[in-house]
Amino acid sequence: MARPKPISGFPEFLPEGRIVESRVLDVIRTTFELHGFAPIETRAVEPLDQLARKGEIEKEVYVVRRLHAAEGETDELGLHFDLTVPFARYVLEHAGHLVFPFRRHQIQKVWRGERPQEGRYREFTQADIDIVGQDQLAEHHDVEIPLVALDVFSRLHVELGLPTVSIRVNNRKLSEGFYRGLGIEDPAAVLQRVDKYDKIGPDAVTDLLQEQVGLAPAQARACVGLAGIQSEDESFVDKVRALGVQHDLLDAGLEELAALIRIAARQEPGRVVADLRIARGLDYYTGMVYETVMHGFERMGSVGSGGRYDSLASDGKVTFPGVGYSFGVTRILAPLIGKGRLTASRSVPSAVLVAVDDEESRGSALDVARQLRARGIPCEVAPKADRFGRQIRHAERRGIPFVWFGAGHDDSVKDIRSGHQEPADPAGWFPPEADLHPRVTASE
């Protein structure tokens, strides 16, 4: 059989990379739960008509069909491209069993049929948090969500060495009110073009607004002028007012965004920035929107995003407004792991290799391994009763720091890095804490 070729856009980590990913997910999950978010998991597929109506995503949905579908079977399913749309369905389906406001976290694979490139993949892991209310949801949750996100990134930086980040925020009400104040009848079309600001630049966005949306040159310039405003404090309000546009929705958006920036500046000084170019391409956002920049990797774009949605979930009688945030786990990790910025201290969980004197004594080696594992020490038994030098080399190749000799008589353990060997009792010996599990190390 010929060597298989990789499929572009579907990353697979080697064991060292997977260990890094697992540690990152542990920190994310633990931090979510420190803030009271309960775990859920949703199915991988949703009805295609539900997926395809959520913004400019139709061409990116992977369609699922049975190879031997029954004649006349018409159900069309697609793999979910994010975790928010399936979560909306989940809330509607299980509302009678949930207590609102409902706080959920969800860590799963998603699929998106876009052109693969660094930081953008066709299969990737996301980690989401959402707070959902029944009929109403207090605005203070719009401030809470980015602060939780910053707590996650801070812990990832301190504990595992990931780069620091800043979160950029805007408010859809502000943008839409500004556009309506200019007499623009299709604010969504403008938002979708402004969302390309960082990718193609202000001049190209100005051209798109005129050529594709039909704006007058003055309208297009005003929209791009708004997108160029950013600040770490409330000074953005005066800059927007100076553009001379008036609208009630604009006033509401300015007030809400100013309140968020004011609180965030006290909690996380300099890490939350009002950036009025942030739009988010999906059409279910109705208020605050967030994007996250990883310092040193700005050209990757946003590595985490989210926002407020007041009408994503509704059964016609009850509406479930919410606010959420999504961490692009694979988007963050694949470049860092690929460039060697994040590595694991070893590629296996085992801290100890229990040597085997001969095959007749393998049972004794298994007994030692059982005692070590009972006390939480990861270990494995040598695959072959070879010369001790070869068993030590086997441990070196696998990155295992300790080799256990004796297995029931004259037991001793050797640190093969230093060569130090000492007597040991499997019922009491413990490796140094730093060697118990693989460690994630970061480098510049």
TrEMBL record:
Catalyzed chemical reaction(s): tRNA(His) + L-histidine + ATP = L-histidyl-tRNA(His) + AMP + diphosphate + H(+)
Location of the region described as Disordered in the Swiss-Prot/TrEMBL record: 415-444
Keyword ATP-binding: yes
CDD domains assigned to the protein according to its UniProt record, in alphabetical order: HisRS-like_core (cd00773)
Limits of the Aminoacyl-transfer RNA synthetases class-II family profile domain: 20-349
Keywords for this protein: Aminoacyl-tRNA synthetase, ATP-binding, Cytoplasm, Ligase, Nucleotide-binding, Protein biosynthesis
Record EC number: 6.1.1.21
Keyword Cytoplasm: yes
Biological process terms in GO annotation: histidyl-tRNA aminoacylation
EC primary class: ligase
NCBIfam families found in the cross-reference section: hisS (TIGR00442)
Subunit structure: Homodimer.
PANTHER family listed in its UniProt record: HISTIDINE--TRNA LIGASE (PTHR11476:SF7), HISTIDYL-TRNA SYNTHETASE (PTHR11476)
Family according to the record: Belongs to the class-II aminoacyl-tRNA synthetase family.
Name used for this protein in its record: Histidine--tRNA ligase
Organism for this UniProt entry: Arachnia propionica
The organism's taxonomic lineage, starting at the top: Bacteria, Bacillati, Actinomycetota, Actinomycetes, Propionibacteriales
